[in-house]
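Per reviewer request, we include the raw input and output of the structure prediction for the construct analysed in the revised manuscript.
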Amino acid sequence: MGWAVNEFEKIDLGDKRLNVRIVRLCDTLSEAPESPINQACADWAETKAAYRFFQNDNVDTEQIMSAHREKTAKRASEYNTVLVIQDTSYIVYTSHSKTKGLGNISVKQGKNIDKIYSRGLVMHTSMAVTTSGKPLGIFDQHIFAESCAPKINVDGREARTFRMFFRLKKKRVTGGSKL
């Protein structure tokens, strides 16, 4: 077992087998981050176990992220200054016509059609790193369909906004770290 044993030592997904599975999955998938699940896993049984885990209604992603955020905050508290790098990624599923819950994530002018939409999801991530670039973990991550993004009015224009972790930093980061 690798890094995930420590990262998820206090997680309680309601079933000890699920607690063990999240550790194994994280270790397995982090050894081959460039690979799809079926290639990262050692065999078909491990691949099926991974998919069963992801489809399990008892697995709460917020519990998993909460355990990770707690460890991230603990690591961040060991540094005087922590940088929080934000990134927005667009995950395109336009060719997956039967997938439900997708939003319009981009539009372009076509040759014969006014508007061509790309369909998919938006992922906004806030990752903590040291000033020397050492990754500490993810503080916040939201995945949503574009139509579900929070909106505000900026200079008469509608703009997407993201709930930031800064309002929670006093709860998550201790030791006087500057974010």
